[in-house]
Design goal:
Layout lengths: L1 E5 L3 H13 L3 E5 L2 H10 L4 E5 L7 H10 L6 E5 L4 H9 L4 E4 L4 H15 L6 E4 L2 E4 L4 E4 L2 E2 L4 H12 L4 E2 L1 H8 L10 H13 L4 E6 L3 E6 L2
Parallel strand pairs: 1-2, 1-3, 3-4, 4-5
Antiparallel strand pairs: 6-7, 7-8, 8-9, 10-12, 11-12
Helix pairs in contact: 2-3, 6-8
Length: 222
């Protein structure tokens, strides 16, 4: 899952970027509102973490422009302003959640998971497909009851596919979900990670089908 992190405090941004990457998210980090506005116009994200006090363009303006464009991407606001008025203003402009600084990373990650479930219209944190189980509370995969060992890229590929199970995902969309701006990769690199995930699913009824010219399909059975 690809996340846009917008935070002008460089130390905090670096800490959050590292923590989210360790949690298997692809992260693009920007430090001002103008760069955030540009990123949101040229890339698709699963979620946005947005500070309000930003240089060049404030976070509320970024949020307002995002919603005016018709985007429904989940937005979690981070701000030192924990007042009721500030929270109400952010939610009224289209934010989905609000977290006051300082905060614990565990709480932020839980809120991210909750928003991602809502974004995919899934109330149940568990997704089952044949012998494959994804536990949305821990973001771990189990195959036939055993914890799967996946690299961060493999995890990102399988997570995107299981949220879209039964529908075709193009190579380009999958690539944009797995790789951020600063990752040196192209759509062809996805083939390597898909191949590795296929190998780890061998022996089960869960398959990743390649539909020529269309993309990949995660499905149960032949």
């Amino acid at each position: 899952m690809r996340i846009l992190l917008v935070e002008d405090n460089r130390d905090l941004a670096s800490w959050l970027d590292k923590a989210l990457r360790q949690a298997h998210y692809a992260v693009d980090t920007v430090y001002n509102g103008e760069d955030a506005d540009h990123a949101l116009r040229v890339a698709d994200y699963a979620l946005v973490i947005l500070d309000l006090s930003l240089p060049k363009m404030d976070g509320m303006t970024v949020l307002r422009r995002l919603r005016k464009s018709g985007s429904t991407v989940p937005v979690i606001i981070l701000t030192a302003n924990a007042s009721l008025g500030g929270r109400v203003a952010g939610l009224d402009e289209g934010a989905d959640d609000y977290l006051a600084k300082p905060f614990e990373i565990a709480e932020l990650e839980a809120r991210i998971r909750a928003q991602l479930r809502r974004g995919h219209n899934r109330a149940n944190p568990e997704i089952e497909l044949g012998e494959l189980l994804f536990d949305g509370r821990t973001r771990q995969f189990f195959l036939s009851g055993k914890l799967m060992s996946l690299t961060p890229r493999e995890h990102a590929v399988l997570e995107h596919l299981i949220f879209k199970a039964g529908t075709t995902v193009s190579k380009t969309v999958l690539c944009e979900s797995v790789f951020g701006f600063n990752d040196l990769a192209d759509a062809n690199a996805i083939e390597i990670y898909v191949h590795r995930v296929r190998k780890k699913l061998e022996g089960s009824s869960v398959k990743i089908a390649t539909l020529r010219g269309m993309g990949y399909l995660l499905r149960h059975g032949e």
